[in-house]
Amino acid sequence: MTHPQGTGSGLSIERLCALAPVSRASFYRGWREASPAREETALRDAIQRLALAHPHYGYRRIGALLRRDGWQVNAKRVLRLMREDNLLCLRRKAFAPPTTDSRHGFSVYPNLARRMEPMAPDRLWVADITYIRLDTAFVYLAVILDAFSRKVVGWALEAHLEARLPLAALEMALAARRPPPGELIHHSDRGVQYACADYIDRLQDAGVQPSMSRGGCPYDNAKAESFMKTLKQEEVDGSDYRDLADARTRVGRFLEDVYNRQRLHSALDYCSPEEFELIHSSRGLAAASPQLQQHQPICP
């Protein structure tokens, strides 16, 4: 870690402390408290990116890649961080057969969404969780999409990975959509947050049938994976969030105002998700409305 010998502004630390005014002791005390946390967060972010780019690499190879990129880390530290972020288990699942990749003891449900192409809203929801980096920490975003329109129907952003994170997204989706019991399938990965009793009980109470990806098959949840890539490219990667509240406000604005209402999807005949659902609900009036008929999309 680089010692703060300079500030990049052309002013010495002594001069900045005099202008602030703060003592040099306070400056260095603040740097010692904040800089290690920022370095640890940056390192964890680098490990996450390398682990996603090289899903079959263990902690030793990830460590070698980090050192090539200029990080001064040993294998023990890389192993600790990968274990804390559950990256070691994620890669081991890729090698495990489908009957043994459930490591949490809860029931694993069959994949009901495979080859399913919903022809109306609220027939298939897909769910996933991703991380978002702050300055000195990570927060986690749980999202539920309607597979027909790609619309975000529920989301939650918190600083933990407990089951109440995706449960909050599920409650938002159920309250907003009110799907008829028995008609909706909810598809997710096999993670403990989705397989635990609290989550499954809530699905079943709402008359929603759970579905889960096969072990080591990210393509089973391709729509959710594609959405997460879009989210990272168009919002997260170019943002510098101050804290959890700032991230929640800005990510929420992107999800609800930009992605749902403005972003055009090639799979939706270049409509936004909300426009696509509106046109679908108005199909009965399309013949009497030339304007609607001209903008009628092709169902995916």
Structure explained in plain terms:
The protein is built from 13 helices and 5 strands. Helix 6 (164-177) packs parallel to helix 8. It has helices spanning 13-19, 24-53, 59-68, 75-84, 87-95, 164-177, 192-195, 197-205, 222-236, 244-259, 273-281, 283-286, 290-294; strands at residues 124-133, 138-146, 152-158, 184-188, 208-212. The protein has a 5-stranded mixed β-sheet with strand order 3-2-1-4-5. A hairpin with a 4-residue loop joins strand 1 (124-133) and strand 2. It is α/β, with parallel strands linked by helices.
Outline of the structure:
The chain has 300 residues and is of the alpha/beta class. Helices cover 47% and strands 12% of the residues.
Topology:
Blueprint: H1 13-19, H2 24-53, H3 59-68, H4 75-84, H5 87-95, E1 124-133, E2 138-146, E3 152-158, H6 164-177, E4 184-188, H7 192-195, H8 197-205, E5 208-212, H9 222-236, H10 244-259, H11 273-281, H12 283-286, H13 290-294
Parallel strand pairs: 1-4, 4-5
Antiparallel strand pairs: 1-2, 2-3
